[in-house]
Specification:
With 361 residues, the protein is mainly alpha-helical. The chain has a domain at 41-238: Rossmann fold. Helix content is 43%, strand content 7%. It has 14 helices and seven strands. The chain has helices spanning 25-28, 41-54, 72-84, 100-113, 124-136, 143-165, 191-196, 202-206, 212-215, 244-253, 271-284, 290-298, 304-320, 326-334, and strands spanning 64-67, 89-94, 116-120, 138-139, 170-172, 232-234, 344-346. The protein has a three-stranded parallel beta sheet, with helices on both faces. Strands 4-7 form a two-stranded parallel ribbon. Strands 5-6 form a two-stranded parallel ribbon. Strand 2 (89-94), helix 4 and strand 3 (116-120) form a beta-alpha-beta unit. The longest helix is centred in the middle third of the chain and has 23 residues, at 143-165.
Length: 361
């Protein structure tokens, strides 16, 4: 497949418009593209003021809660918050089939930084049932979007519940620029989303496959007491200058990971992501993460040379189910799925909560 020679965007991506010069439309007219990594000045100012004001302010003994996946971004965020800002940090991990590299990074960083840690392990049967259903009933944007934007709210909601329980006023997530979809979060989850919106995906409520108890796993502030004190939920990398290469270098240099290759987003990736990418490659003929990494390359925040090698290697491993791509076969066996089960059969937005379909305040 033809790719943009400057940012590696595949021609199969909608609106790529790769011309005879080998450049995509985004590279030919960069001024027309919203930057993923140039932070808004108001967000930067709010974040700095919030972090300074939060020091030793946590009513329950911690100033902030950090969801920790074991990837480079969440690991480095722990360091910045504790060492550079002097905050009392509680790390939180949802244990859903994390790879060995991610657990190694978690243990190494927590020991290095001496940070308390809470782990939640959801019921395996529920996780398997949910993932199997989502992959068999994908919305129009494919597997990564469908699973991520049902799966992520599960552990985001659990983080909110934990912060409320421990009276922690601030949740700080290691989302890189462009994650999650700006429609859901651009620097901060809307206070209305945290205080007023049932996070249960609408389609799951009506499909008849899930019990009230299972649906109750999703966060719903409408069931909480009226005097509940809700935390703010921010993504600091949306406000700070972000450089993927620099983050990978720093976590290695600071000893937050055991070896340099553990900083790779490929090695620390959730195993289920390999199956999700496999499904999207099958349906769309390009890796669903390609637009995100191409944008980082365009803005000088990711290495063109690195992704020239790794992007085709990742796709090769996925398509052939070899090396790390063997996770495709493992996950399909775990979920009792076949290629024919990977369906896109729902309209765009089928799983989005109502607040995402109207302007946020």
């Amino acid at each position: 497949m033809k790719k943009c020679k400057a940012c590696l965007l595949p021609e199969a991506v909608p609106d790529s418009r790769i011309g005879p010069d080998g450049l995509c439309g985004f590279c030919r007219a960069p001024s027309s593209v919203h930057s993923l990594t140039t932070p808004d000045a108001a967000h930067r100012e709010d974040l700095e003021q919030t972090l300074r004001a939060s020091r030793n302010s946590g009513r329950g003994g911690y100033d902030c809660l950090v969801p920790l996946s074991g990837g480079k971004d969440s690991v480095y965020l722990l360091y910045k918050l504790k060492v550079e800002y002097g905050l009392r940090v509680l790390a939180y991990t949802t244990d859903i089939d994390l790879p060995a590299v991610a657990w190694s990074n978690i243990r190494t960083a927590l020991a290095r930084l001496d940070i308390d840690h809470v782990v939640l392990s959801p019921a395996p049967a529920f996780v398997r049932k949910l993932l199997r259903y989502l992959l068999k009933n994908q919305e129009a944007r494919g597997a990564v979007y469908t699973v991520s934007y049902v799966y992520a709210p599960l552990f985001e909601g659990d983080a909110i519940r934990l912060a409320i329980e421990k009276d922690i006023p601030l949740i700080l997530a290691g989302y890189s620029p462009g994650q999650p979809d700006p429609q859901r979060m651009l620097y901060e989850f809307s206070p209305r989303l945290i205080r007023e919106e049932d996070w249960t995906p609408p389609h799951l409520k009506t499909c008849g496959e899930f019990s009230d108890n299972e649906l109750g796993r999703f966060y719903n502030p409408l069931l909480l007491p009226a005097d509940t004190r809700f935390p703010r939920y921010l993504a600091p990398y949306h406000a700070w200058d972000y450089d993927q290469n620099e983050v990978m270098r720093k976590v290695t240099e600071l000893g937050l990971v055991k070896r340099g290759r553990h900083a790779s987003p490929i090695l620390s990736n959730y195993p289920i992501n390999w199956l999700m990418m496999y499904s999207d490659l099958k349906h769309f003929n390009y890796n669903p993460y390609a637009p995100e990494f191409s944008a980082l390359i365009r803005e000088g925040k990711a290495s063109l040379a690195y992704w020239q090698v790794m992007a085709p290697l990742v796709d090769f491993m996925i398509r052939r189910r070899v090396l790390l791509g063997r996770e495709v076969s493992r996950c399909m066996k775990w979920l009792d799925l076949s290629d024919e089960d990977l369906h896109i059969n729902l309209p765009e937005g089928a799983y989005d909560p109502p607040l995402l379909r109207r302007p946020a305040s």
